[in-house]
UniProtKB/TrEMBL annotation:
Recorded family membership: Belongs to the aldehyde dehydrogenase family.
Sorted UniProt keywords: NAD, Oxidoreductase
Biological source species: Aerosticca soli
Protein known as: Aldehyde dehydrogenase
Keyword check for ATP-binding: no
The keyword NAD is annotated on this UniProt entry: yes
Highest taxon in the source lineage: Bacteria
PROSITE patterns xrefs: ALDEHYDE_DEHYDR_CYS, ALDEHYDE_DEHYDR_GLU
Residues annotated as domain Aldehyde dehydrogenase: 22-479
UniProt-listed Gene3D superfamilies: Aldehyde Dehydrogenase, Chain A, domain 1, Aldehyde Dehydrogenase, Chain A, domain 2
GO molecular function annotations of the record: oxidoreductase activity, acting on the aldehyde or oxo group of donors, NAD or NADP as acceptor
Active site (UniProt): 258
Length: 487
């Protein structure tokens, strides 16, 4: 039976999965995969090179030639089986999410539940990959639109929600008859290998799902620029997203880019304060703020500002930072030395330039305390840049118009939230917010399988979600048949 990882030594190894076989990188190198809690060695993963990417893409293309002719009911069954296996093996995935990327238990369970949902929704997409019969201007002409799969789809995932994204970026491509090559974050190769194994054991034919582990900055271009890759599904930073967009543009290749965020949460004076504080705390601090939808800019109408800040501070200080395997823990370790340094630098920069530390700013090991800043100004790095850690800036605003203007003062545009009892102003905010997603009286952080998920501006290009994915993953073809009758 193919193994994603085997414990021949004390430290497990993760290999590439190409053409239905587990294999080391061509040159046999491995890299260290560390547990962010203490940076102890967790696994060693194949250090893939461009030659491995090429092998994986060619294996995917070869498999595609047969897979494209499989029946919708077969693809539906494989994806349902994958969902069932994921539910049955949930604990194994949860353990990896805790030990490989520092997920608190609740966040790990959330990822599993979401991923099961994406698989089920994608299974349903197999039978909905349909075209139309169209009226024709020519007598006797039967006019049809057909959907055809694209071919090889590259799925490139970030470290923070590696299960959600490994499934979300592959499930509908597979449902619609495409083959995939998965390049996971170098911080989460074990999790990706487990996903590849899941698909394999669910019965998907060899070569339809391939995995190359390694460093995106070394081998990403070999994948996104490969002539056989027809679609790049990317989730990650805006910097890398723009780089991929340039490659895809030059090659007339499809791309979806789900990128960073600097998401505003607006609290108007008539808001339900309890709900707003709860939404801000969960939206900001889940998974220690390493979430693209984190509410890192909180704009509170002045009459409620002091009360909100006091309650928000107290709630932030009460967030449990203990054992990741306890269900109440919210704050875990930041993923890597580089990311910890970034968070530290953002806090120091803000404080050095005159921001007020409302709470936090300290560290327990690799965990940054939930940090709340006031008095953040545009010249401070964290005003505009994504921190990707547990650091929130709270601003007083004078009225709806100022709240809207400041909410829109960002080159990002992923998610936005507003808390108010005034439906007219809520809808005006929803209409005018520079964001791909707006939530009223609910946190910025939310997703469901079938919705058009994504952002505008530096937050991305294109959308994810079952229906839009069917469009993204298929090519329309218009076919006409001239009949002798009145068809
Ligand atoms: P990252 O951009 O550093 O890496 C993401 C992936 O890109 C990794 O797999 C990496 O190996 C790969 N990569 C790096 N260089 C590449 C290249 N030249 N070509 C192809 N791939 C390359 O991001 P990260 O630190 O892993 O994740 C955090 C970022 O992801 C944040 O900005 C966060 O907001 C964003 N994110 C967005 C969403 C969303 O849905 N909008 C969801 C989760 C995370």
């Amino acid at each position: 039976m193919p193994q994603a990882a085997h414990a021949q030594t004390a430290v497990p190894t993760v290999d590439c999965f190409i053409g239905g076989r587990w294999a080391p990188a061509a040159d046999g190198r491995y890299f260290d995969d560390r547990n962010p809690e203490d940076d102890a060695l967790y696994a060693r993963a194949a250090h893939g090179a461009a030659v491995d990417v090429d092998r994986a893409v060619r294996a995917a293309q070869q498999a595609f030639d047969g897979y494209r002719h499989t029946l919708a009911r077969e693809r539906e069954a494989w994806l349902i089986k994958a969902a069932e296996r994921l539910e049955a093996e949930a604990q194994a995935f949860i353990d990896i999410l805790i030990d490989e990327v520092g997920s608190p238990l609740a966040k790990a369970r959330f990822e599993v539940a979401m991923a099961v949902g994406y698989l089920r929704a994608a299974a349903g997409a197999a039978r909905r990959t349909s075209g139309q019969t169209l009226p024709s201007d020519v007598p006797g002409r039967l006019s049809l639109s057909l959907r055809q799969p694209l071919g090889v789809v590259a799925a490139i995932t970030p470290f923070n929600v590696p299960l959600i994204k490994s499934i979300k970026l592959t499930a509908v491509p597979l449902a619609t008859g495409n083959a995939v090559v998965l390049l996971p974050s170098e911080e989460a190769p074990m999790l990706a290998a487990r996903v590849a194994r899941l698909y394999h054991e669910a019965g998907l034919p060899p070569g339809v799902v391939n995995l190359v582990t390694g460093f995106g900055h070394e081998i990403g271009d070999a994948l996104t620029g490969h002539p056989l890759v027809r679609l790049v599904n990317f989730t990650g930073s805006s910097r890398v997203g723009k780089h991929i967009a340039a490659i895809a543009g030059a090659q007339m290749k499809r791309v979806t880019l789900e990128l960073g965020g600097k998401n505003p949460l607006v609290v108007l004076a008539d808001a339900d304060l309890d709900a707003a504080v709860h939404g801000a705390v969960m939206g900001m601090f889940l998974y220690q703020g390493q979430v693209c939808m984190a509410s890192s800019r909180i704009l509170v109408e002045r009459p409620l500002y002091a009360a909100f800040l006091e309650r928000f501070q107290a709630a932030a200080e009460a967030l449990p930072m203990g054992d990741l395997r306890r269900p109440e823990t919210v704050i875990g370790p930041l993923i890597s030395p580089r990311q910890r340094e970034r968070v530290r630098a953002h806090i120091e920069d803000a404080l050095g330039k005159g921001a007020t530390l409302v709470t936090g700013g300290g560290w327990n090991g690799h965990r940054c305390q939930p940090t709340v800043l006031a008095g953040v100004r545009p010249e401070m790095t964290c005003y505009a840049e994504e921190t990707f850690g547990p650091v929130a800036a709270v601003y007083p605003v004078d009225g709806f118009e100022q709240a809207l203007a400041q909410a829109n003062d960002s080159r990002y545009g992923l998610s936005a939230a507003i808390y108010t009892r005034d439906l007219d102003r809520a809808l005006a905010f929803a209409a005018q917010a520079h964001a791909g997603m707006v939530h009223v009286n609910a946190p910025t952080l939310h997703d469901e399988p079938h919705v058009p998920f994504g952002g505008v501006g530096d937050s991305g290009f294109g959308r994810e979600g079952t229906e839009v994915d069917i469009d993204t993953c298929t090519e329309w073809k218009w076919v006409t048949i001239q009949t002798g009758g009145t068809a």
